[in-house]
Amino acid sequence: MRLVFSGSWFDKDGLWEARIRRLHKFESLEDLEHVDFGFLLISYGFSSQTLGIKVKASEYPRLVFLELDEPSPFVKHEDSLNLRLLSSSFDEKNYTEAVKKVKEFIAEGTIYQLNLTCKFDFEMSGKPIDLFLRYYKSQPVPYAFFLDLEDFYLVCGSMELFLEKRGKKVVSKPIKGTAQSREELLKSQKDRAENLMITDMVRNDLSRVALRCSVKVEELFSVEEFRTLFQMHSTVSAQTEENVKNILMATFPPASVVGAPKRKAVELIDLLEPHPRDYYCGCAGFVFGGDFTLCVLIRTAIGSGNKLSYYAGAGIVWDSLPEKEWREVLLKTKAFCETLMA
After folding, report:
1. Which of 32, 106, 185, 292 fits as disulfide partner to 287, beta carbons 3.0 to 4.6 Å?
2. Is 219 an active-site residue?
C-alpha cells in the first residue's frame, strides 16, 4: 500500500509520500470520531446514507481511513506508459440524448441543474504510479494524489476543494464553469448562472451546521488557469462547532457534482447514468484532529491491474447545448489523455 500526493495539500512544493500504518474500512462516519492523523476516502455511494437514496454501487468500500506516518519527500522518474481506450458508458449520440432528457426535467420544474457524467474504460501498459506521475506532470493541481490499496488504486488530479476546516472556520470552493480561454468563461452567462446556482446550494448546505449568521460568500466567479483549461469557482465560508461527521452528513455529496435540488438530482443521476460513480464525485483528503482538508474526486481514475476507468461530466441547465456539453466532457479528459504523450 502507498500514498503519494502533491505538497500543495500542506502548502509545500513537489511530491510527498506517507507510509500507511493501518487501513480501516468503515461503515459509518461515527467511526471517524476517534481518529487522529490520516487520509480519508469516501465513495459517491455514501450518498445513500446522507440522503437516504439508493444509488448504483460496486464492491468498493464506501469509507476508507488510512492511519499515516509523517510524510517525506517523494522522488521518482516515471517509466514508459501507454493507454488504450476500450469503451465508454456514453457515446456522443447517447450522451446528447441524455442531456435532452435532463432539459425536459428542467422544463417540468423537477430540477434546475444536473451534472451528467461519462465513464471511460482504458487498458494500461505500465505501472499505476507512473500514470500518476505523468498525469501530474501534464497538469499540476493542488489536490493530486496516488493511492494504491493493492486491491485497487486511485489516480486523482482534482483542483476542487470540497471542504477545509481550521478551528471553527470551514470553507468550500465549488467549481462550475469550464472553458479553453479565460475570456470565453467570463463572457458565458450559462456558466455564471450555473456557478451561482451551485454556490447557493453550498451556502444552504453549510448553513445546516453553521453558527448563526456566519455563512459568507467570500468570492464569486473567480477564474483560475490550469495547463489544459480554465475553471470558474466561488468561495463560501462559515463558522461551525460541528465535527467532521456532522459536517459531511450535512454537505455530502458535493453540490457541484450532482445538481439542484440535490436529492432529486441524485435520483435522476442514478436513473440516467448507466455506470456507478464509485469514488468519482466522492471526496478524499487529510484529517488531523478536528481539522481536515477534503477535495472533490473529479479528474480521477479508478483501476485494478491493467484496467482503469476515468470519468468526466458536465453541468446541464435549461440553455445547455447538448453537443457543447459533450465537448466539455472531452475537454476535461484532455489532461488525462495527454499521459499518452512521450
Report:
1. 292
2. no
Locate 323 and state its grid cell: 453537443
Counting every residue written for the chain, the total comes to 342
Q: Which residues contact 138 (CB under 8 A, 6 or more apart)?
A: 227, 228, 335, 338, 339, 341
Q: In which residue are the cell numbers 455564471 written? A: 192
Contacts for 108 with CB less than 8 Å, ≥ 6 apart: none
- The catalytic residue among 17, 160, 242, 325 is 160
221 phi-psi bin (left φ>0, alpha ψ -120 to 50, beta other): left
306: which 3 cell numbers? 491493467
176 belongs to the catalytic site: yes
Upper half-sphere CA count for residue 323 (Cβ side, 13 Å): 0
Third-level CATH fold of 2-27+36-340: Anthranilate synthase (3.60.120)
pLDDT of the residue at 283: 98
CA–CA dist 266, 46 (Å, integer): 12
Q: Which amino acid is at 107?
A: A
Beta strands in 180-247 (DSSP E): 216-225, 230-239
pLDDT in tens, 227-264: 778 889 999 999 999 999 999 999 999 999 999 999 99
pLDDT of residue 318 exceeding 80: yes
Whole-number Å distance between alpha carbons of 325 and 323: 5
CA–CA separation, 137 vs 180, rounded Å?
A: 19
With cut-offs at 50, 70 and 90, classify the pLDDT of residue 342: very low
Catalytic residue among 165, 176, 262, 332: 176
pLDDT value at position 337? 80
The C-alpha cell that represents 250 in the structure block: 450535512
Sorted by where each begins, the domain ranges of the chain are 2-27+36-340
